[in-house]
Amino acid sequence: MRKNAIIISMQSVLIVGASSGIGYACAKKFIVEGYEVLALSRTECVLAGVKNYLCDVSNESELDLTLNALLAENPRIRHFVYSAGFSMAAPLEKADPKDYRYLYEVNFFGFVHCLRRLIPALRHSSGSACVVSSVGALFPIPFDPYYVSSKAALNAFCAALQTELRPKGVRVLSVMPGGTRTDFTFKRKIYSNEKTGDYSVAVKTASEKLKEIEQQGASANKVAEEIYNKCAASSAFYLFAAGLKNKLACALIRFLPQPLLTMLTRAVFLSSPGPTER
């Protein structure tokens, strides 16, 4: 007599930006935990078994078409992790509007658009959406106000959605890593001396310090583990710093007087006088 087969449906996670960095580490972690990984990015995630959907999240029409195909093939999605990101180092008066508009499309609006489309699936699974923010949302990074403001916007956006989506069974989370050892450091768009003019010394100094902070920071695997744990938990909290060091730093920043925070920023990132002090 043939035994009845028990079919267990594998849970799915959609990771945007899974081809490298924190997103890639998240893909590895979710695979280990038994999830089917759907990867949406401009280049393939090379991990075995991952279902890749190639797309530029800054192109809304392309993103729509890709999400249509993805959701048609994978209607059951338990978790959504958004790890796409772009960073640039440029003085405000020298920055090309095309660059910082692209940054916001990737860092902020890409998440917004994906989440809007995924809400029905996440409501059905009582799932979670997690965006990779940054400690930089609280600690200003010189010459990258675009990046830090986009991450601060993500934090505020997630906070505002708590009363909207949590009653529908969807948890919306924002995880803030600090410096993390990934290739993201080397993909940052840094404006040349010719473009930055009399800001050039300060831009170079701040960029080199940020590079040092990131490459001496936590591993992407540690951040991915924290992201997985937050997605899998049922906590009512929604904003998290990744790692004890970053938790302490965020707590301290919230209590620092604004002039002192500015002085601390200059001490950390600028070892030579800025352009106004020459």
What does this molecule look like?
It is a single chain. By secondary structure, the protein is an alpha/beta fold. The chain has a single domain (12-277), classed as 3-Layer(aba) Sandwich (Rossmann fold). The chain is 49% helix and 15% strand. It contains eleven helices and eleven strands. It has helices at 21-32, 60-73, 97-125, 145-160, 162-165, 184-187, 193-196, 200-215, 220-232, 244-255, 258-269, and strands at residues 12-16, 36-41, 51-54, 79-82, 88-89, 128-132, 171-176, 180-181, 189-190, 218-219, 239-241. The strands form three sheets. A seven-stranded parallel β-sheet has the order 3-2-1-4-6-7-11, with helices on both faces. A two-stranded parallel ribbon has the order 5-9. A two-stranded parallel sheet has the order 8-10. Helix 1 (21-32) crosses helix 9, helix 2 (60-73) packs parallel to helix 3 and helix 3 packs parallel to helix 4 (145-160). The longest helix is centred in the middle third of the chain and has 29 residues, at 97-125. It is globular and about 55 Å long.
Protein traits:
single chain; disordered C terminus; alpha/beta; two-stranded parallel sheet; 11 helices; 7-stranded parallel β-sheet; globular; disordered N terminus; Rossmann fold; 278 residues
